[in-house]
Amino acid sequence: MSAMIHDPIDRPRDIMTDNKAFTPDTAVAEPNTARSSNASSKQAALPPSYSSTVDSLKDFNSKANLTEKDQLEEGDYSPFDHRDPNGASSGGALAHLLKSSLGTGILAMPMAFHNAGLLFGGIMTLVVGFLCTHCVHILVATSHQICRDAKVPALGFAETAEKVFEYGPKALRPYSNFAKQFVDIGLMATYYAAACVYMVFIATSFHDVINYDVGLKWDVRIYIAMTVIPCLLIGQIRNLKWLVPFSLMANVFIVVTFVITLYYMFDQELDFSDKPLIAPAAHIPLFFATVIFAMEGIGVVMPVENSMRKPQQFLGCPGVLNTAMITVVVLYAVIGFFGYVRFGDEVRGSITLNLPDGSWLGDTAKLLMAVAILFTYGLQFYVPNEVLWRKIQHKFRPEKHNMTQILLRTGIILVSGGIAAGIPNLEPFISLVGAVFFSLLGIFVPSFVETVYLWPDRLGCCKWKLIKNVLLGVFSLLALVAGAAASIDEIINPKQE
After folding, report:
1. Rounded to whole angstroms, how far apart are CA atoms 57 and 299?
2. Which of 21, 47, 325, 472 could form a disulfide with 16 if both were Cys (CB 3.0 to 4.6 A apart)?
3. Is the pLDDT of residue 62 over 60?
4. 3-class SS of residue 308
5. Which region is the signal sequence (predicted)?
6. Backbone angles phi, psi at 88, to 5 degrees
């Protein structure tokens, strides 16, 4: 599979093309005020295992401004030679990528198989995994090439899109800032939407345990309202080092939960006979939306790659990306397959919710996972809020910044709680977020960005790369429309228990 994924952008570096033989309309990038010394000290305070999480902010602010003087140099420029020599090793980058990919999405995979069937789900999980990996590959490869053209050492996701348009065909250069803002806003919306999913998951877990054990009949919306309270507190944390203890505990809780879940998955003989090989066609869009939500990690890829001291080892065969994604896809397929076989049509949005009610071990797993997600909420909320604040802080007087941030964070969390209460059904909510946000950012944007960069004469024989990217774009839009429609239909007309 790794050989299939390896598809580098193969072209001579010395050929002068329309995209490379000119100075962009915006000759010098604007100074990046976000990368202050204060931010650097915050990152330095974190242990190395959390560097990929902290560096996720680089999706929105890269190191481009640090070497603007290099844009005046002539001759070939190798961005790899200007990376931090003390950056992450390939092994460290692999660990960071696995840590970010093997999260809560894996718990939704049995539900994805329920919407696809055993055979179709198994095959298409591998296919979607290949497509997601390929889209990450072309994004990183394009970023490497545009870094060479722009003579900067590294670019984040949004800045890669901006530079590709800025150095691209003349008709598209005026849209470079729009491309950057589109990706920025898309990433922020993705984080905020995922935070809403977190609230629903936390509330549902506590709802199932407390209602069963205590005999209450409370609606899940009551638990969502109660979940908002600790989220309001942890969401006010603005210093990343204060979030580190929460992340440490969350990691421990997640590992324990996985072990308990695996125990229940294989605690009795599995019955394959009553599981369809292919699910009804109406459920297929939900499968694709859920798998894309679970598997897509486009937001953390560029920060991990930017942190490497030898970024050329990120792509290739086997490479960091291929190794991580093969591991992720196999684990997701195994958990999804056997999780669906074990729980069948009763499977829910997170497999932990299928663990036996009233069992101390099952209740422990549900509560530990809920607390782990709550502790992770602070980091999930921190990243987009920092980006949003950098975009709007100039509109407020400095002496009002503290109170404004408090009110802003409180307002966003309350709105998130309202959205979560409006969509308290976890399964279609996950599918909706995957269909809308991850289809756009994970598949459509990378394929479109590569097309713009290679246009017009570097698209391969018979323009096969253009055809390939058009197909990827069509697939992403179909997944978006069909997945969103099916998810909204389930939200409006929930299935009867």
Report:
1. 9
2. 21
3. no
4. strand
5. none
6. -70, 145
CA angle, residues 475, 478, 484, in degrees to nearest 5: 135
Q: 372: exposed, middle or buried (C-beta count within 10 Å: 0-12, 13-18, 19+)?
A: buried
Q: What share of the chain is helix, strand, coil (3-state, %, to 5)?
A: 75, 0, 25
DSSP-derived letter for residue 29 is P
Number of H helices, E strands in the chain: 19, 0
d(C-alpha 5, C-alpha 1), whole Å: 6
Residues 6+ apart with CB under 8 A from 371: 249, 250, 253
- Burial of 364 per CB tally in 10 Å (0-12, 13-18, 19+): middle
Q: In which element (H, E) is residue 197 found?
A: helix 176-214
Q: With contact defined as beta carbons under 8 Å apart, do 39 and 390 qualify?
A: no
pLDDT tens digits for 362-378? 999 999 999 988 988 88
Mean pLDDT of the chain: 80
- State pLDDT tens for residues 345-364: 888 888 888 888 888 999 99
Two tokens, residue 279: 């699910």
Q: What are the C-alpha distances in Å from 414 to residues 227, 418, 420?
A: 11, 6, 10
Task: Please give the C-alpha separations between residue 268 and each of 20, 342, 344, in angstroms, as whole numbers.
Answer: 62, 8, 14
The encoded tokens of residue 410 equal: 């409180």
Contacts of 280 (CB under 8 A, 6+ apart): none
Q: Which two tokens stand for residue 397?
A: 């007087």
Distances (CA, A) of 172 to 27, 141, 178, 179, 457: 15, 21, 10, 10, 16
Q: pLDDT tens digits, residue range 387-439?
A: 888 888 889 888 888 899 999 999 999 999 999 898 888 778 878 888 888 88
Domains observed in the chain: 56-61+82-492 (1.20.1740)
Q: How far is it, in rounded angstroms, from Cα 90 to Cα 321?
A: 10
CA dist., res. 261 & res. 266, Å (int):
9
